[in-house]
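Troubleshooting: if your tokenizer reports a length mismatch, compare your output against this known-good record of 365 residues.
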Amino acid sequence: MVIEAQHRNGTAAEDASSVVGWDVGGAHLKACLLRGGLVADVAEWACPLWQGLDQLDRALDQAAARWPALAGSRHAITMTGEMVDHFENREDGVCRIAARMALRLGAAARIFAGDAGWCSAGQVPARWPQIASANWLATAMQVAGSIDEGVLVDIGSTTTDLIAFKRGRVCGSSRSDAQRLASGELVYHGVVRTPLCAIAPRIELRGIACNVMNEWFATSADVYRLTGELNPAHDLHPSADGAAKDLPATRQRLARMVGLDARDASPADWLANARAWRAAQLDDIGGQLQRVCSAHRIPATAPLVSAGCGDFLVDALAAASGRPCLHFGRQVARLSPEAPAATADWAQVCAPSVAVAVLLAMEPR
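Known-good structure output:
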């Protein structure tokens, strides 16, 4: 086990007030180090879990290298990675991820089970439905405890969560992915991995609307790489064609979506085309946001709380609706004065890992 091995080798342990929050996704492992109730550091590693649990081991090794003094820390775990097709079903995924995390972090690691609270690895088989894909609920609980009312909008690499909250509570009864897809609280749109053919059936190029090729020729990362909004630190996965991520290769992928090559239009045309894809994605997410606000009677003056690597789209949604926009990393997460300068931005991207750490820190030992 990573933590015990470091302890045997004489590495100094964190003090007992340290908590590490882990968010095990299908594409990334995100983690937050909390000391004395304050966010000391946050990080993210690529973890293509569909390729096997060895990818999780590799990401955990990177985390151990970053934070070598974790013996004695408490560990809070949430996940969405059970959805990848490496596992026979979601129950299998939850149980195997929890078992691997407990093996690496120690049997005292606690798994977030949503409204049911916390459980040990041994209790996971009985509580797996509450554990599966509950990371959004941890973030929403922390936000609801900090802000009177509004909507959490967490736009990540793959998905968007739209969670209304009022008076310290998360609104609505939807908890599973299936329920949240039905209610509009889960939208399978992200700013890195979403295939462009899933965003719109027609797109405009040089003033002409074209049918889109329903092929995995390009992803949303190509759009936001071209608009300059995607931070390269979050562009961690291979492009759709496995080619470079420079601007010429990015334009070529966009061109394939409408049966062209990059040389068939100017760089300015392809930038305008990328902005058309951006507008289409915003329109879809904005429609679902309005649906959630209406369902829970969220006032027009209530804020959006942004999170995720696609938070720049939340700013645009807020501006379009006339709502204020609050930043999870700067206005909800409580940062240590000694935290690195970029910690607020990483807390924004890795909000569920921050939230589970905070929620566990509030629990008695």
